[in-house]
């Protein structure tokens, strides 16, 4: 079962990376900021959905404003 999960995650990550190939720098920074913010928000709030979404929103805004 663990191998199936690992393969599924690898396939999803490959799809995500392929989808980001034609993004502008600003779009890429926004996506990276949102992902990082979601992880940090989830960790800080113990997996609470509101913390995760809030972290993603804040991270996305910060990522969007980098090198403006």
TrEMBL record:
Origin: domain of life: Bacteria
Entry-linked PROSITE patterns: PROKAR_LIPOPROTEIN
Transmembrane as UniProt keyword: no
Keywords for this protein: Signal
Record GO cellular component, one term: outer membrane
Glycine zipper 2TM domain ranges (all copies): 30-66
Region forming the signal peptide: 1-18
UniProt protein name: Glycine zipper 2TM domain-containing protein
Organism listed in the record: Crenobacter cavernae
């Amino acid at each position: 079962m663990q191998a199936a999960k690992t393969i599924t995650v690898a396939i999803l990550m490959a799809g995500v990376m392929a989808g980001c190939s034609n993004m502008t720098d600003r779009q890429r920074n926004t996506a990276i900021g949102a992902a990082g913010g979601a992880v940090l928000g989830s960790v800080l709030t113990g997996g609470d959905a509101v913390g995760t979404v809030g972290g993603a929103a804040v991270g996305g805004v910060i990522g969007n404003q980098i090198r403006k």
